[in-house]
Amino acid sequence: MAEALPQAAGRDWRTPLELLALGAIWGSSFLFMRIAANPFGPFALVEVRLALGALILLPFLWRERAHFRAGMWPRLAVIGAINSAIPFLLFAWAAQRSPAAIGAICNAMTVLFAALVGFLFFGQKIGLRRSLALLVGFVGVVVLATSKAGGLSLGGAVLAGSTAALLYGVGVNLVRKHLGGIPPAAAAAATLSCAALLVLPFAATHWPAAAIGAGAWASAIAIGVLCTGYAFLLFYRLIHRVGAARASTVTYLVPLFGAGFAWLFLGEPVTPAMLAAGVLILGSVAVSQRAA
Description:
By secondary structure, this protein is mostly helical. It has helices at 4-11, 14-40, 42-63, 73-95, 100-107, 110-121, 127-145, 155-178, 184-205, 214-242, 244-247, 253-266, 272-290, and strands at 148-149, 152-153. The protein contains 13 helices and 2 strands, in the order αααααααββαααααα. The protein has a two-stranded antiparallel sheet with strand order 1-2.
């Protein structure tokens, strides 16, 4: 009976639609960052994103407030910095210097880095097939880092995006180890709130002097409300219904939507090197997730 429920849930018509929706939402975040990163700058943009995302999830934090002891907040702040503040800043910085597809492709490395960090520091098994998948994924990153778009080198942006994915991988393991007993939406609200407070002084001192246009504001609000707050809720609902492994297949969709939206709305080309790197990275992620 216990097996029948997840299988039935996996066949629920809502699941593929919600996976597509989540892939599109997270893919669009790289488009929105590309539009808003230059007018806002990384610090101001990330502060808006964190604050709005935390605000959307705040009711869940309030409802589960009994889970949060006073001594937990320093730990929550560290996790918020590693899992949200710093990666968001790195992706925003990369968005100023490279096509949106670069960040979206690098983001797919999160699954591989989570496995690597779990193996190195948290005693998780990795296996030969997953080790080979990691190697292939890193080859994809090298291909991407050594390529050019519009005559510009992408190395710095790829390094920033890959570092952000590495931090996501660390953050996943920290959340699993230290926040496992807390409802996920409440934990996300707490870590996002801490991250917003950490970034706030930098945002205040780096707030742009020039007026920010309506398009940049709309993009920043969309990143915070839709791509952070609502996306977390949708992701956790999928995890609850079909399990983490199936929900994580959204990883394959994010680069496709990210690159597609940037091509459609910004006219950014998808180069052969991007395609090759995307195939290598997404293929390695697929193998990694299937590995025992």
